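Usage

Read records sequentially. Each one opens with the input sequence:
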Amino acid sequence: MSYGFGISGTGMIANFHAEAVKSMDGGKLAACYSRNEDRAKNFAEKYGCRGYTDFRAFLDDPEMDIVTVCTPSGTHLDQALKIAEAGKHAVIEKPLEITIKGCLRIIEVFERKNLQLAGVFQSRFFDAARVLKSAMEKDKFGRLVLGDAYIKWFRSQKYYDEGGWKGTKALDGGGALMNQSIHAIDLLQWYMGAVDSVQAYKGLLGHKRIEVEDTAVAALLFKNGAMGVIEGSTAVYPGFLKRIEISGTKGSAVLEEDHFNIWSFKDRTKDDEEVMMNFGMCNKTGGGASDPSAIDFTGHRRQFENFVKALDGKEKLLVDGKEAMKSVEIILAIYRSAEEAKPVRI
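and closes with the structure output:
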């Protein structure tokens, strides 16, 4: 079955959604929505779909089954509730919502309406990320000791000044962690399991005129006893690829964007040699380290394909609403810890 997709919001990330839908199996682009008439018209002409400036009319499009939400983070709750009321399924860009209460509200409404809901975490769908997840499920690392995420990115002052909503508490929900580092934080908890508590610091070190942090550091204690660190920033020039480090008693791996710098295990096998042959070379994109548009839509395409296959009962939905909320919980705990100068349990 082929499903009709609609895209709400026509900013930079919406282009990646459109390219992903147009290249995927099981989906087609039916409509787009923007409050700005010119942007709706131009986006619709570019991608060959219908453009709307009225959200209700957009939701009433008869050929649209699924809405992907690409609007500012602080608008996600309002849009999600209206999408569910219209009987459409939803794929919501990160973060699912900027509060736990908002996340839970979205999840509850979609469950009650028997509609499918997903949060966008496309990094989980790249091959190297999946190889690492598979190795952890096979207990290749032994007892997990350390799990770390480093997101040392760069965004210019111009990026925040031109964005309108970027860097605001109401619409961005946070800064370097909630907007940029959230993908790596999602991967870290996906690999390491639930976080028990955090101790954190945050600050505004490299930018002006924004309400949120551009740098944060947190020490983590995972529920399995392992420990870790999150370092996230948009003030580090020139910006570096996001890095996940997993260390255990039997082996360690360092995932840098979509390749491995380190893949070393006590019990080495032929499969380990193949992993380094396939994923030991640097990736082709900048991963958004200094340019938010320097990403690949492959992860979005694969996530959208998983979404429609889950609707058809052919696959398990990999990032449902509850999964998408986990990174938000961690980030909000980090913010609270930094503000209250004490450890925070999750």
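Summary fields computed downstream for this record:
- The radius of gyration is 20 Å.
- The domain at 124-294+325-345 is CATH 3.30.360.10 (Dihydrodipicolinate Reductase; domain 2).
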